[in-house]
């Protein structure tokens, strides 16, 4: 294959693969402000000097942020909360950095549940394990004036959450409560006469430190590696039995609390966790439950909600509904002036296989004839993200980090 052909074909297939990945964005919640308007790094870098230190341009001048750098992630989240919600938040180092579009998707789902269930008036929520950012209560209070009880185990996170609430003058809406290890809901609510509209939770994903460090892996084979670094501390990311056992405990405690909380919800980080959790709900005869997809960028998470109130209605999943629809196949037309290609079915198929090899994608032949060749493609790792940018910058052009002038 000639060098021009390799470069042309390689970038063409990268475009197709990235289109497939970024298709998740169209399933972001329709009211999520980041669905139609992505964060403008150029604007933010000019307005916020601290953010400016964490972005860099490619040869075309487009700015990028290193999502593998915890400090960069921390600065992005604090900048978005200030710019888009008027919240002044300080995030402690070595603690979980909240991804704002994802957290916003979760809150908007809660809004939909309340709307579909005709719940109005004084809304109160519980955030189980609020973290140092106290992100769910702060965003919800700013957007909807909801009242919150935010619980936290970690001393550093508790102190930081209290300061963030005070810094934003929301002590009238948000109470942060320190709890002991293994406390979810029951120990907080069983002796209280208070009732709550909903609860939300971002449980520890991992069952042990080996899994958290990636030494052992429970990710399904069809899931790509995470796009950003894990910034959570062990107390935030690890619990006995991982998120499945944590949410199961939450389900069992809800059996005792019943309608003290009208709607129980939790985020779920791994798709493989959904089946055992739904099975647990069925086993306990909790039949009013639902799941939802939280789609943003290259990441998907899931929401699980259940209730003992028959009047609670959960919104349908747009992602599931769209998946049921017949979609046109992804197609790519080989331009007539492409150099070095034989315009036969076998010739085009050969060039496709060569491109796939460069992307380290396994290609297995299936049925074929004179006009059609079928192949099964298997990608064991993400080898195509940002390759267009890498191909451009590999031409010997120097990237300058001192690109912004006042």
From TrEMBL:
Binding-site residues, S-adenosyl-L-methionine: 103, 129, 152, 202
Short name of any one Pfam family annotated for the protein: Methyltransf_10
Class of enzymatic activity (EC top level): transferase
Any one GO molecular function term: mRNA m(6)A methyltransferase activity
Keywords for the protein's UniProt record, in alphabetical order: Cytoplasm, Methyltransferase, Nucleus, RNA-binding, S-adenosyl-L-methionine, Transferase
Family matches, as PANTHER family: RNA N6-ADENOSINE-METHYLTRANSFERASE METTL16, SAM-DEPENDENT METHYLTRANSFERASE
Protein family (similarity comment): Belongs to the methyltransferase superfamily. METTL16/RlmF family.
Protein name: U6 small nuclear RNA (adenine-(43)-N(6))-methyltransferase
Lineage of the species this protein comes from: Eukaryota, Metazoa, Spiralia, Lophotrochozoa, Mollusca
């Amino acid at each position: 294959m000639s060098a021009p052909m390799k470069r042309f074909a390689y970038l063409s297939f990268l475009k197709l693969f990235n289109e497939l990945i970024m298709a998740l964005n169209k399933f972001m919640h329709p009211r999520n402000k980041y669905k139609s308007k992505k964060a403008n790094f150029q604007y933010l870098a000019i307005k916020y000097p601290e953010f400016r230190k964490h972005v860099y341009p490619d040869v075309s001048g487009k700015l990028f942020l290193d999502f593998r750098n915890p400090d960069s992630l921390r600065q992005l989240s604090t900048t978005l909360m200030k710019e888009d919600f008027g919240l002044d938040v300080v995030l402690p180092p070595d603690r979980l950095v909240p991804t704002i579009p994802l957290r916003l998707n979760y809150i908007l789902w809660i809004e939909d549940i309340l709307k579909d269930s005709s719940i109005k008036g004084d809304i109160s929520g519980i955030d189980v394990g609020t973290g140092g950012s106290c992100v769910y209560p702060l965003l919800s209070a700013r957007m909807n004036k909801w009242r919150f009880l935010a619980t936290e185990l970690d001393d550093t996170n508790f102190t930081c959450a209290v300061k963030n609430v005070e810094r934003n003058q929301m002590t009238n809406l948000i109470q942060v409560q320190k709890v002991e290890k293994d406390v979810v809901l029951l120990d907080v609510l069983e002796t209280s006469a208070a009732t709550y509209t909903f609860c939300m939770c971002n449980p520890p994903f991992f069952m042990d430190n080996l899994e958290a460090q990636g030494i052992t892996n429970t990710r399904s084979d069809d899931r790509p590696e995470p796009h950003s670094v894990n910034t959570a501390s062990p107390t935030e990311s690890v619990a006995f039995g991982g998120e499945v056992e944590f949410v199961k405990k939450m389900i069992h405690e809800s059996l005792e609390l019943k309608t003290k909380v009208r709607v129980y919800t939790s985020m779920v980080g791994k798709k493989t966790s959904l089946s055992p959790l739904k099975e647990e709900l069925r086993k306990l005869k909790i039949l009013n439950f639902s799941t939802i997809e939280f789609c943003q960028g290259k990441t998907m998470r899931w929401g699980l909600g259940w209730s003992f109130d028959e009047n609670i209605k959960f919104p349908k999943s747009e992602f599931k509904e769209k998946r049921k629809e017949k979609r046109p196949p992804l197609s790519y037309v080989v331009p007539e002036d492409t150099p070095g290609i034989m315009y036969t079915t076998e010739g085009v198929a050969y060039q496709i296989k060569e491109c796939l090899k460069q992307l380290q994608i396994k290609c297995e032949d299936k049925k074929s004839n004179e006009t059609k060749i079928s192949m099964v493609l298997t990608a064991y790792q993400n080898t195509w993200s940002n390759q267009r940018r890498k191909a451009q910058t590999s031409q010997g052009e120097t990237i300058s980090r001192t690109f912004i002038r006042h």
